[in-house]
């Protein structure tokens, strides 16, 4: 493996909980029941698509103006949570893996559906780790479409089959698989069933394992 691509929310930082809280807030306001289980469908999915799913769940159809107002409301709520973010919100042992790769000059990319990816990386001090950042501002076709990861690989100059993707969302694992990349799930193996390999979190990932990925096939 020559290129490492990381999702952001729920992989590098624990922002998945803030997305959930902001959606839950809006769902409560609209009288739509919304559980953490429902939220699994929102992981890796664009903001716009999340709202479409929420409204489908509530059987609501609304004007374009109202749709945009709620979209804005959700994002403002989310931004209020991430305003205070700092390096302490980086998930355990993520630094261990990123530092290992950085020291070996292995090309790394971020591949996220979020339009807030860049400011979050800045806040937690990880912006400089990534050679390229592909985020929700650039990608037209959202995960599970492979576009985000294919663009990341192209910018890294690494063929897709030599890239490995770290993802916490089922849609993201599907996107990585569709891109012809190796998919590593971070989270529940019962949810991320299509991943090539699943770890509960980065504390389970041994640096020997990463070393093995880098030398495999050589
Ligand atoms: C993904 C999250 O990373 O980004 C989704 O997993 C979220 O839950 C999506 O909806 C879009 O994020 P944002 O920050 O642009 O609203
Ligand atoms: Mg994610």
Protein described:
With 218 residues, the protein is α/β, with parallel strands linked by helices. The chain has two domains: 3-14 and 86-215, HAD superfamily/HAD-like (Rossmann fold, 3-Layer(aba) Sandwich), CATH 3.40.50; 16-82, Orthogonal Bundle (DNA polymerase, domain 1), CATH 1.10.150. Helix content is 44%, strand content 11%. It contains nine helices and six strands. It has helices at residues 16-30, 36-39, 47-57, 64-82, 94-103, 117-124, 147-156, 170-178, 207-215; strands at residues 3-6, 108-111, 132-134, 163-167, 182-186, 197-199. A six-stranded parallel sheet has the order 3-2-1-4-5-6, with helices on one face. Helix 8 links the parallel strand 4 (163-167) and strand 5. It is globular and about 55 Å long. The structure holds 6-O-phosphono-beta-D-glucopyranose and magnesium ion. Magnesium ion binds next to loops.
Keywords:
218 residues, alpha/beta, Rossmann fold, DNA polymerase, domain 1, 2 domains, 9 helices, 6 strands, binds 6-O-phosphono-beta-D-glucopyranose, binds magnesium ion
Task: Briefly summarize what is shown.
This protein folds into two domains: 3-14 and 86-215, HAD superfamily/HAD-like (Rossmann fold), CATH 3.40.50; 16-82, DNA polymerase, domain 1 (Orthogonal Bundle), CATH 1.10.150.
